[in-house]
Fold each of these.
Amino acid sequence: MTNRKARWTFRASAALLFLALAGISAAGLRAEAPYKAIRFKVDVTPAIGLDMAYCPNNKVDMPIYVGGVILDDGATRVVWCTCDYIYICGETCQRWKQSIAEAAGCPPENVFLHSVHQHDSMLVAPEFNPPAGTVDDDGKPVPIEGSDPQYVAKSIADITDQIRALVADDAWVPIAELKTAETRVGGLASNRRLIDENGKCIAMRWTMTTDPALQAWPTGLIDPMLRTVALIKEDGGIYAALHFYATHPQSAYRRSMVSGDVPGWAVRYACEKTPDTLHFYFNGCGGNITMGKYNPSADAAAIVALGTRLGGYLLKNLDRLEERAGGPIRLFRAEITVPFDPERVNPRHATWGMHAYFEKTIDRWRHSSITRFNAGEVNILSFDMGELCIEYQLYAQALVPENFLAVAAYSNGLYEYMPVAKAFDEGGYEPSPDACLVTPEIEPVLKAGIREALRELIDNPGWVGAPRK
């Protein structure tokens, strides 16, 4: 890290020395851009008839994509990749990271692979599929549960082929700086856990809740902020924008049609308004957050209404971008040991499926990681696991309130829900055996990992180069 910092400082010093010696104005010198980037976007819409997460795909409501940016500072290269899937799970998630890393030319730990979590989409986990010839108790073939293997193979091949070709063609675009924006969002996220005066979860405000009594409850605990990291070209144009917001992303599902849902519509809306910019959406710790309070119709019309609203906020962030001090790309990683509860591993026993698979492979997944991406004053916290609840995102934000910190979750979906400890006493869906594989000890474990990943910012608050305490 010291060498990278020295190299970064040297660039600026060398430029100033050259100006002094040559006696020319700064206006006449084109400085070397501190970053370079490649953006990519691949259509991964499944064919008609393929099984999705909850139902077969009988119609394309909206195409789905995998896309993102490769960012390089001359010493370190990372890939930020977002997928319009409900999840990528298990070994498949690991293999995709490895494949993307090889195509992009970086280590697999530098690939941040996240799903948006739309429910009318694909569950990418062929390891959940039953072995060939498996039948149920009635002698009927057990259906695919983790998506068609040929679809999975073609999708990752298409993704890596595009990345590899772009890198081989030297399609890098100089990035002069990273800018950020934060906007308070209204009328989208709401907490779905309705807790009474006795501290018990008495109802769930699901995505498609249209009961006026449940919608009338307060919004509840959310992170209302949409955060954006924009890659700025040398001419001042916005090459790509990474957006981060925490909520379940769907307004309507189980419709037997593939859809990018609310974020898909929002990204399309924003791209149409800013055709020179590619927009990419990342979901934060939205495990206990939905749009149920504000879902106007629980059908396709809601996608347009909520998607346009979200798209408007994406554009608003582009209008209020703030300059940030630059710096070399650095990664701070905290390793955690996940406290699984063996009694919860297979509560819904099936002939095969996710829980049966997890029961066979539990020891392989006891260790996970939390990584902070840092470039000067820009920070993004990435959880290499599943559906964290909003309390963990708010905890991270509270530790470093003077810093810009975006959050991305929904990586390896095998881990399922990660509630806070008190939720196990409150009840409700997230801590139930149907949804959760961990014990209440997950809270101190995750919070310790978050603190470790943020340690430098905690010890040096406020700005780049703050003196150590």
Note: Confidence is low (pLDDT under 50) at residues 1-7, 9-30.
Amino acid sequence: MYKMKKTKYLIIGNSAGGIGAAEAIRELDNKGAIIIVSDEPYPAYSRPLIADYLSSHRPLEKMLFRPAGFYEDNDIDTVFGDKVTGIDFAGYTATLADGKTLQWQKLLLATGGVPIVPNVEGLELKGVFSFITLDDAKAIDDFITDYRMPVKAVIIGGGLIGISASEALVRRGVRVTIVEMKDRVLNTILDEEASSIEAEAVTNAGVDIITGHTVSRVNGSRLDEVKSTVLDDGRTLDCQMVVIAIGVRPRLELVIESDIKKNLGIIVDRHMATSQPDAYACGDVAEVYEYIYRENRLIPIWPNAYLGGRVAGCNMAGGSAEYPGGTAMNSVKYFGVDTVSAGMVVPPDVGYEVFKTRHDDIYKKVVLKDGLIVGMIFSGDIEKSGIVYNLMRDRVNVSGFKEALVSDDFGLVSLPEEIWRSRLAVTTPSETCSSGVQL
């Protein structure tokens, strides 16, 4: 008869946050049992690379976040292809879909996010996909391969997921139409000028963009396959495939009925601890401290998940680490346009200073408040964006050289000597827990 399996550390989620936590734990505790549970059957892989898998069949071994022997080398037990269906915080147990039970001493919820699915008729038809996991990319790849005829696709959403999926599909010869509810693409990470530069590159690649509208219905054929989409203004777009790319929301089903403190996501303190004893959370499922807005927010980006996992793992293993705070930061290259954006890119009209320059398709913008950088966009030329981002992250007062931040010749030598010397001496932040774990 199966007995309850005990573990010192239970990590639910096998992406950046879960791996970061496991690494930090092992640096402090090389003997305590670790179990990582994931409903995906794969070792940890880089989710941003699923577009490369779809566009050019990048093999899984070239998508791995850590080497193939990572789990064995770190003495980590894995439960892949199964999922946790319930958590008893009082009893320190978790139930798996197969009925087995795991008993833990320390728990990390790194469950990530799930696609936001609109209330649209016809999404159950064959040919409707999401695009956030490797299995999503595999399913789309199989569909395109099996269809054998030129495919037309409608992408619902013009954000990061929608643009990424569009570029991958274009490379596979698919004719793409993006339908975005707001007035421009990438509206959550770019301002109007930067968005227009990206939109021009997208349309030049043959993609049609429809803004200010939504898909109200997906029509099917007699074989229950996608035949067309109908927009909210009555227009019909012929297509054989629909990709839902509105975004993701925190995956909260394990805690929705619990007393754990939550808002849009699970609320954590600066130690990544939740309101439940011995339970931590990180990554897309957690609301963490955001240093621009000075409040807890969702920051669904890969580096934030990893750093949050490191902080959580250190504290789970008895160390003392504090999350320094994060902000939204994206560095992407879609349809040939390099873009970096971070922080508050569209500030309120009062109380902020904005410095920007544009030369053809090169655009730079920096937003300041009280001498501190609170937002930035670099598009077309991102060479010096790292310097500006580090100044923002390290909360350096830039009042004395603020106009130079967007100049063509800006660089380390543009900074006051005491600042550029410190930039050369320390190129990355160093947050260390009391037992010496480098975060």
Note: The chain has three domains: 5-112+250-316, 128-246, 336-425.
Amino acid sequence: MDLQSDYSEVSYRVENAIATITLNRPDKMNAFTPVMMGEMIKALDAADADDRVRAVVITGAGKAFCAGADLKPQDGGGPFTSDETVDDLSDHRVRDTGGRLTLRLFEMHKPVIAAINGAAVGIGATMTLAMDVRLASDDARFGFVFARRGIVPEAASSWFLPRLVGLQRALEWCMTGRIFGAGEAQDAGLVLGVKSADELLPAAYALAREIAENSAPVSVALTRQMLWRMAGESHPMAAHRIDSRGVYRRSRSSDAKEGVASFLEKRLPNYEDKVSRDMPDFYPWWQEEEYR
């Protein structure tokens, strides 16, 4: 199901329980704009709201994934050259567009797989940090180039990047702003695997299908939030509280019965619980007083 008519700078397609979001400005190396940000969030909203969608793959059209922010937009004003002055730094106009995107990714119920098919620089690199799995083509190139442009890392990457690759590596990449290849990215844990250009999307879809065909969607949604949010907790007791609640509620669900039955009967499961209606009653737990 192609829904391209609803978008201008990305494409959105749903097929076989997998949503594909493609950054679609190939003549500009998929350079990031506020319009692209809005359309990506719109597509993520659509995928999250659709119970048919079990996983999301994000990739780029043409030879690049995303070569960073568009420094020469059609309106003539670059992303760092506005004459507007805002005195109150809590004003919504101060918020960076990349951070608005990664915060939406952080809230996803569906797993998100990045298929990084070429250059991923600046926001092209940082947007992927909030995705769950990153696969890269062997000719992909990465760069956290902000210090070389006189600015600082954005898209909440100061939170995401050290959690993925460690503080020392994150500092070195961000302070030098150098470009590095897919092999180094894999060695550091930034990407899970490196594939040839022809193998990249099939590998991303194979992983998406592995999740879609075998895992309960409510369990995946809950697990995704548990792992991401527990990364910031100071004591394992916080994880123990949520693990205990999750196991208790899910073990009494029809999905748990189906999971056991399908295992014993050696068949694919048919999970009927839906993210739209069957998330456990303690979700979202982080809004409770004890977690604030």
Note: DSSP finds eleven helices and nine strands in the chain.
